[in-house]
Amino acid sequence: MADNITSTSVITPAVNAYFQKLLLVRNKPKLIHALFADRYDLPSGQGKTAKWRRWAALPTRTAEVSEGITPDADRLSKQDISATVAQYIGWVMITDVLEFTCENKILNIAVSELNDQMHRTEDELVRNILVTSASATTASKGTPAPTNLNADDLEIVANTLQNVDASPVAPQINASVKVSTAGVESSFWAMMHTQLKRDFRRCEGFIKPVEYGHQGGILEAEIGNVSEVRGLASSVAHKQGSATEAFPASAGEYYYIPVIAKHGYGVVDLKKANASLIIHPKGSGGSSDPADQRQTAAWKFMNVCRILNDNNIHILKVTLRAD
């Protein structure tokens, strides 16, 4: 009897798969590194280099002046900082055969993916500059390992920024009459890898965003507050391998956490050459594409990230807890 059954093992379907036209969603990282940059435009026709100047404070004059005696004059001094923009490009080429045979609108997909690529590129460029800040502290008060993330070292970093008169970025959040809520002091922002999220939450005095006295101004990537530091987490924040300085191999994976005050860094865009999308349809290639076989989509921008004040960015270097 079994030999007489006609099944799919005998006759296979002519179509053996149905294509779902609704595309699957790809997880995307939270892009946090350019959030607090001072943004500048470099006018077209003015070269590729931007320049800033900072004047040094004059010393106080507390010595008494003798009658009829003119004191010595003070000399003004300044610091110049410069940065040169560079161009970045990403693009894809689509053939006519792909467009004719594929279920999806390939050009629309290409534009969406290029837009995502462009923003991730800028975020990574900014991150790689931030972790080079000259001001840094290696965690030393953590448990079980001294280099683990902890509240004491976060408070030391915040105090270090305050000692050079750096201003917090996030405003104070006052307490409310709601149950289980708390006020949050004006704070600096700390940018850390998502793998450190659990360690940050185990810091003494940690406050969840849902426990803030008011919910306005909470950022999508925000994970909470410790002392005067509010944390942001991203899967593309710094971790081992993306900075020049490393802990000893025995210390395990290391992470650089930039703690940001106001006016610590800037991003300069070359005006008329900043973020743009360029599409060349089939037939636009002239003799290089005589049969109209190819179309392209591309993005490009010209900018540069520059640390404007090393005193206003402090790196906390930590390792991940093993427990």
List keywords for this structure.
15% helix; phage-related protein like fold; 6-stranded mixed beta sheet; 323 residues; alpha+beta
Write a short abstract of this structure.
This protein has 323 residues and is of the alpha+beta class.
List the helices and strands and how they pair.
Layout: E1 38-42, E2 49-55, E3 78-84, E4 86-95, H1 96-101, H2 106-130, E5 136-138, H3 151-163, E6 188-193, H4 197-201, E7 222-226, E8 229-234, E9 254-260, E10 265-270, E11 276-280, E12 294-307, E13 313-319
Strand content: 25-35%
Helix content: 10-25%
Q: Structural class, from secondary structure content?
A: alpha+beta
Let me know the average pLDDT.
88
pLDDT below 50 for ≥5 consecutive residues: which ranges? 242-247
* CATH fold field value: phage-related protein like fold
Taken in chain order, the helices and strands follow as EEEEHHEHEHEEEEEEE
Main sheet specs: 6 strands, mixed
- Please give the radius of gyration in angstroms: 27 Å
CATH class: Alpha Beta
Counting structural domains, the number is 1
